[in-house]
Design goal:
8 strands, 8-stranded mixed beta sheet, Rossmann fold, alpha/beta, Arc Repressor Mutant, subunit A, 266 residues
């Protein structure tokens, strides 16, 4: 499939999950506005999910097409994640938050939901690659299970090559430079989520003593301080630390601390 995105905006149906990789804000707002306009004209409930309110540039483009957003006549519902993204969270909590918001909107309108999700900053910098993929696959699964059409937008300048590959693995349809492509690397969400769940379950593999050691590492204690705190030898602390990293498949202290903070330790 290789066609202009503007030929597809009105053709997208329930359960479609499209990823738009844009190069500049102008391109981002143009496609976003047209995506909503087609949804509004088709009588669909439109939802904007972001870390901040809809930008004036997007609203201005909508108004140019006669669509006003303000007062009692809102063109679309807004789900502002804001404070929810400021602290490290478990990936399943993020997906659950989005799902509940969409369920609430769907019940209110009783119509298919057209969703635009765009984040100005990357709130998942502390997550592992597997956890990021799990989030994307979970959102795709959510789209497949509910009467949802979702357009997710990413700025190509703010994503790594690894993240770009993850996008192609988790989104069946990709839009790049205004052209629609069928992703050659797409995999079913259930398959990817199973991989991600293995990552999420790794914490359960740690023993009680290893969790204590991990918490003390996160608190900034040295090996000798941890040894004194737990009344064990420094060598035993080093062994616990090595086992923790092996079980979690984490290979440096920074990533280990980030992981531990998400689990509420330290």
């Amino acid at each position: 499939m290789e066609n202009s995105i503007f030929l597809h905006l009105n053709a997208f149906v329930e359960h479609d999950h499209v990823c738009h990789i844009y190069e500049n804000d102008s391109e981002c707002f143009e496609i976003a506005a047209n995506y909503f306009i087609h949804g509004i004209k088709a009588g669909k409930t439109c939802v904007y999910i972001s870390d901040r309110p809809a930008p004036p540039e997007l609203l201005k483009r909508l108004e140019g097409h006669g669509v006003r957003h303000g007062g009692k006549s809102k063109a679309f519902e807004e789900v502002i994640l804001g404070n929810f993204l400021k602290e490290p969270r478990r990936p399943d909590m993020f997906v659950s938050h989005v799902e509940k918001s969409l369920e609430k909107t769907a019940k209110k309108g009783g119509r298919p939901v057209r969703v635009l999700m765009t984040l100005s900053t990357d709130p998942f910098f502390s997550l592992t690659p597997s956890e990021r993929i799990w989030i994307k696959a979970s959102l795709n699964k959510l789209t497949l299970e509910k009467p949802v059409i979702m357009l997710t937008q990413y700025n190509v300048e703010r994503i790594s090559s690894r993240e770009l590959l993850a996008i192609f693995r988790t989104h069946p349809i990709i839009v790049e430079r205004g052209t629609v492509y069928k992703s050659p690397f797409y995999r079913e969400p259930g398959e990817l989520m199973k991989e991600g769940e293995n990552e999420l379950d790794k914490f359960g593999m740690l023993s009680g003593k290893e969790k204590k050691v991990l918490g003390l590492i996160t608190s900034g204690l040295s090996n000798s301080a941890i040894a004194k705190e737990l009344s064990i030898s420094i060598k035993t602390v080093e062994t616990h630390r090595a086992n923790i990293m092996k079980k979690l498949d984490i290979h440096n202290l920074v990533d280990l601390v980030k992981y531990s903070m998400r689990k509420g330790l330290g």
